[in-house]
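debug: dumping io for the single-chain case to check the tokenizer round-trip. Nothing else runs in this session.
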Amino acid sequence: MNAPVAWMPRVETYLAYRRHHGFKLSIDATQLRSFARFADELGTQDHLTVALAVAWARASQRPGKLTWARRVEVLRGFARFCLRTDPATEIPPRGLFGPAHRRLVPHIYTEVELSALLDAANGLAPAHGLRPATCRCVFGLLAATGLRISEALALTTTDVDLEAGVLHIREAKFHQQRLVPLHPSVTESLSAYARCRDRLVPRPACDRFFLRDDGQCANQSGILYALQTLCQQLGWQPRGDYPRHRLHDLRHSYIVRSALRFYEQGIDVDRAVLALSIYVGHAKVGDTYWYFTGIPELMAIAAERFHRYVQGATR
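debug: decoded output
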């Protein structure tokens, strides 16, 4: 009797193939390796079948149809890859456990909250260290440009052109690059931070723009901890579906408030959203619309427009 073929090498081959074509697959890799360990422990399946996919999906430590559906969705791409060399492979049908995605409502920061957050960042410890300035500048940059936190923290000193007021995003999602022009007030804040950084950390250990007190690059976990600590100190509860405040909510807030500004200034929203989509580094404009959230100001504009439409229709 032949020994079952190990699943982990097949998963690694698939991941290498996809990454060669530009996909990072960090989350998918974790899930697929979990599947490989599960299948290898069973030791009875040589082929990827719907039954095997269902068994692994239901074995999640976070039970629920949404979790199961997301696990099956990850397996579908791997199954199509396996089908090339194994005709006995079964591709799990889409929607086996229902929809794999639902939009969780983010926390959209008000202008008052953003100002309070930046002021509160000045009180972070150490009082005379670089951390307060770094956190304040990162929060402000995310709120003013809609950058992803990974993009902001990956900036080097040469990526930030303080003369021209432009950021060079070199490694965005899907390995894309883009130039991000800045409002003069943002450039001024970055310049002030750079002077503070160079004074407090004259011999940095890396070339990143945002640094810690030890000269190493600022990291996402540290910035997130600062954000959640400040929100707790301010007594804020997140509005929306997430249990805690997230850095990504600053990106959501920028996109939503940009849409509000378009309406308030009478700008052609359809054209402006196309430009906004490019500015924030989305692959398609539909991704930008996904960020829109019905804040009271936008809902008031929608209600007023509908009121005018009804009035016109009844004349």
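debug: round-trip ok. The first strand starts at residue 160 and ends at 161.
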